Amino acid sequence: MELYGYPLKAKFTYPKPPPTKILPATSTVAASYKNRIPYQPESISLPWMPNAYYKAAALNPTLAPLSESFPGLPPTKIIPFISERPNGVFTRHTLDDWHRSNMTNYKESETTRHNAERLRADLNRTIKDVYLQAKRTQGESTKNLGERVNDIEYWKSELCLELDAMIRETNSLTDMQKRLERALADTEGPFQVAHKCLLNREKRMGIDLVHDDVEKQLITEIKIIRSVRERLQQCLNTVNAQLMCNKEARQELEKDLADKQMGHHIDNKCYQLKNTSRGIHYYRGVERIDATISVPETWARFTDNNIFRSQSQRATSAKLRASTESILMGTADEMWRQFSKVNDAFTSRITETANAKSKIQTHLAKTRQEIFQIETKIQVIQKTIKDKEVQLKVAQTRLDERTRRPNVELCRDTAQIRLVQEVNEINETLRNLHQCLRASEDMLQMLVRSKAVLEHDLVIKNNSLFIDQERCMGMRKTYPSTVQILGYV
């Protein structure tokens, strides 16, 4: 609010009221009145109280004519300065001049007072209009600032909501990134286990070094784990790239929000400024400086584009998280299925090897029993041969002794015939016994060889069982759980 009589502090764009006609002051020179130029407003930068007003008020009034209605005395009636009367007594004006001068002064005074009253009324009206115009203009500016503050508050709230949503989404995607990294690291253990199982099974011996189903399943498991690692690594790279996009969108939101907060603080301060506020000063020429770089449409579109970009990145991030979760579940299920197949193949192979080992042990026991019996029989045959040889010696000794009978006593009697038959029978029996002995010894050698084969095969089966059951299955018991593969821990 401005006090009356103080110089104005602002200029307005509405048209300036026409200047009030002010009668000039009296002058001693008539030509100065006749050739007087009417008052014209100078530059709008001059004060509203011109210096001419004070100069005119400072002049002393004279008796010169002041208006066109009284042009003055004609030159023929001007009283001469030097009187023609004798004795040096003379007068310059007549009584009529004196009355006319008084009337002129009265009329001039009334005209001046009337003009002054009219000027005061115009000034009061002008001051009132200026005050109302300034109040209306300041009110409109304050209203516009308030609307601007409300607009900034709205976009600030939108930015805060979107920024919170982006932070939550980024945190969720970061957790997914950590799960992917843990899942990728957890696949290294199963890969090494499968690889070591293949290397350990290369230490099988003999006939057990076969390309069985276990080896096929182990090779398939290694291929699956490599494929899973490639997919997880590719997904991790995509997640890292998306995190960078989320970070850029978040930085744009934070920068825009910081600018909005600063702008809100400045506009709110301007909105609360009044004529009685502290810290208001003149800043000459500031209205001619245009430092703006946007209009309300581009200003709102900039923030809307930032929010839309953030929403797009959030949608992409959420979709990526869903696909990553699906990949984690799928890869974990695929690895577990193959892990179960390998374990089933190991179990089946171990059972088959154990059955073969049991049968080998049974056959080995029977072979050993048969070897014992053959050895016993061989001993019996050998004893029988020895006994028959003694009988043969007796029979042959008898025959030899009877050959020493004299002359006719060399009779081919029944005893002689029987002794010959006995020797032949014993020889035949010995031949049969020797054949049986050789056959038994050959059979014993075959049994011993079969025993050696069975024992060697038993060693092979024991070694295969130790590799498959103790080393391989022992390592596969430490296989990570589903929770570890999915990256929840």
UniProtKB/TrEMBL annotation:
Primary role: Microtubule inner protein (MIP) part of the dynein-decorated doublet microtubules (DMTs) in cilia and flagellar axoneme. Forms filamentous polymers in the walls of ciliary and flagellar microtubules. Required for normal sperm mobility.
Organism: Mionectes macconnelli
Record keywords, A-Z: Cell projection, Cilium, Cytoplasm, Cytoplasmic vesicle, Cytoskeleton, Flagellum, Membrane, Ubl conjugation
Record's subunit section: Microtubule inner protein component of sperm flagellar doublet microtubules. Interacts with TEKT1, TEKT2, TEKT4 and TEKT5. Interacts with CCDC38.
PANTHER family (UniProt xref): TEKTIN, TEKTIN-3
Matching InterPro entries: Tektin-like, Tektins
Gene Ontology biological process terms from the UniProt entry: cilium assembly; cilium movement involved in cell motility
Homology family: Belongs to the tektin family.
Name of the protein: Tektin
Cellular-component GO terms for this entry: axoneme; microtubule cytoskeleton; nucleus; outer acrosomal membrane; sperm flagellum
Top-level lineage group: Eukaryota
Location in the cell: Cytoplasm, Cytoskeleton, Cilium axoneme; Cytoplasm, Cytoskeleton, Flagellum axoneme; Cytoplasmic vesicle, Secretory vesicle, Acrosome outer membrane
Membrane topology designation: Peripheral membrane protein
